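Form 12-C: Joint structure prediction
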Amino acid sequence: MKKELNHWISVAWPEWSDQKWPIFFKEEENKIKKVLHSNQLYNGKETEYLEKEFSKYNKSKYVKVVGNATQGLHLALAALDIGAGDEVIVTNYSWISTASCILMQNAIPVFVDVEPRYLSIDIEQIEKKINSKTKAIIYVHLYGFISNASRLVRLAKKHNLKLVEDASHAPGASYKNKKAGNFGDIAVLSMQQRKNLCCGDGAIIVCKDKKLSKKIYQLRSFGSKELSYNYRISELAAGIARVRLKRLDKENKKRNEIVKKIESKLSKLDGISTLKPMKNTYPVYYKLIFFYNYNKFKKNLDYFIKHMRSKQIPVSKTYPPMNLHANFNLDYVPAKGVTWIKPFTKKKFPKKMKDLNLPVTNEISLKKAFQINIPPYLSEKNITNLVKNLKKYVEIYKK
Ligand SMILES: Cc1ncc(COP(=O)(O)O)c(C=O)c1O
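Section 2 - Result
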């Protein structure tokens, strides 16, 4: 049987290049040895120091560290008292954890489309979705781009809603000189292996005030009368993150330079463009997002991706629209005790979420956007090869 390519899975640069991410150095190796010999592999000094150091780095007073960002987002909603039947407004364009955390609290996700320029939640559409059950908005700095943060903070305040910032892609990014993580009531930054500040698995939670931070601390490790969890990070991961935090700015800068180089070489390319940041922001790239103007080509995006991969250019599609995910399109009650389904229907969803009208995410995710990983040590050879192949494709396949 012919093997189908999975266009959604991001692929690495070819082995022959210096494309690897992450690259570990002697410092990480020494840190691992030190932690091992300390005999303390969970919840110890490394975790505490990481919290302090990130707090200083990010100019965020209240920082806690957990096992991963999925846990972090869950704890964020739990700490904000989001519960059964509450509605949470969420972008439709992100990794599934951004919305599945809502289900974990038995609350109801209300998907909102994105705006096409920065791929951020469409603020114009949020207000139409707010009702008496609405408790929070989850906002994502998709692919390391912060946009419209001030407007969103104002909007949440106006309607007395909590704002949760999923800053998983954006450690080190800033908006009007304020770093990602400082806009919401709670923000979560992933340290999963592919991310810019990576330690295998881990996440940073930034809280707006002391009370929330205390609650996160209690919920993280069985410290509350409320249902609480084991969402601790290991000391090994925290130690690695501390080492890598020192390199974060330098590596973000390198990634930015690589993107600038690629963009300058492609500036006159007709039909393929890149996602550009909002004014007064500093984006951080772990992937570069391109737009394929399918109207200008004889072939569609899927064809383009297959073609580029056959030339060893590791492009892939971006996230599928979240409303298409199986979690939101079930014919059955997904788990006993999941009450969030009830407000929709007695037995089944009246309307599956895949039928929601979210045209911008659909068009961009399914027909236009593609991505390529941008590791900080990407070689000139790879950059040249990428540019050459994109130009060639345009030459051959433009209508
Ligand atoms: C936007 C976003 N939010 C949340 C997560 C979840 O992160 P983690 O793997 O640390 O649970 C990811 C992971 O890719 C993500 O991309």
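Section 3 - Comments
DSSP finds eleven helices and 14 strands in the chain. The chain has a mean pLDDT of 92.
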